[in-house]
């Protein structure tokens, strides 16, 4: 892959500014150095509409990403960067409708670039945050930033629909308010009422926080467990369809499955011939039966 660049600065501050690249690629890894110079920034419009990559990796040497640098990169699904990238111009990732996962490696405790990206995207998106002392996964629901026009009063009234904007507000340029994030959960439940699918905002938030409980309080843990327990019977068949062993195991290990939910899951797993999940659910049923919490069941009963 050939990168096109210009130089800026002088002496020790001299570095490269990427202005584009030649070639087709599924994974675009921005180099730390090009032409013997450290890559300091990515120029405005550098890859706009011309990048077919599905994954983008930005090294710690890049401090700044210019406006609309990756605008309309429609196939981009995953973005990985460090918190050394602190300045991200407006529209840098706008139009990247497939972008669903941000991976941030936290080295110096800055969330400036991360916040810039979140503020620029209105679609639902997950974030993996790698801290020196652990890892967190957060889900940010979608929102709609719209307006109502009052022609009689000649006024425009801004309107935001969806809890995704409020969730994004828990991220500042210096920190993430995990407690504030967790306190918003009732709003996510209300927004997703009637949508109990695996990708419903409240379900995704609950699973993400329980699977990666970084700075998770006991009170917040209880609310997430309660929500998943209440909807387990609808969720388990979907988890089996998607072969999500990790989340199904979480429900079992935390005893969030009623006998009805486990039985419904076992029927689905048997129909889809998934022996690993059949075994997991049967073991769960045996454990609850021996503890006096439920009824044992087997494939012969289905």
Q: What is the helix/strand order?
A: EEEEEEEEEEHEEEEHHHHHHHHH
**Major beta sheet, specifics?**
6 strands, mixed
- Weakly predicted, low-confidence segments: 194-198, 297-302
Distance between the termini: 56 Å
Total number of helices: 10
What percentage of the residues does DSSP assign to strands (E)?
15-25%
Rg computed from alpha carbons, rounded to a whole number of angstroms: 23 Å
Overall pLDDT score: 88
* Secondary-structure content class: alpha/beta
Protein name: Leucine-rich repeat domain-containing protein
Organism: Moryella indoligenes
Q: Can you give me a brief rundown of this structure?
A:
This protein has 302 residues and is α/β, with parallel strands linked by helices. It contains 10 helices and 14 strands. This is Leucine-rich repeat domain-containing protein.
Give an overview in words.
The radius of gyration is 23 Å and the shape is elongated. Strands 1, 2, 4, 5, 7 and 9 form a six-stranded mixed β-sheet that branches. It has a six-stranded mixed β-sheet with strand order 3-6-8-10-11-12. By secondary structure, it is an alpha/beta fold. About 35% of the residues lie in helices and about 25% in strands. Helix 5 (about 200-210) crosses helix 6 (about 220-230) and helix 7 packs antiparallel against helix 8. The chain is built from ten helices and 14 strands. It has helices spanning about 110-120, 165-170, 180-185, 185-190, 200-210, 220-230, 230-240, 245-255, 260-270, 275-290, and strands spanning about 1-10, 15-20, 25-30, 35, 35-40, 55, 65, 80, 85-90, 100-105, 125-130, 135-140, 145-150, 155-160. This is Leucine-rich repeat domain-containing protein.
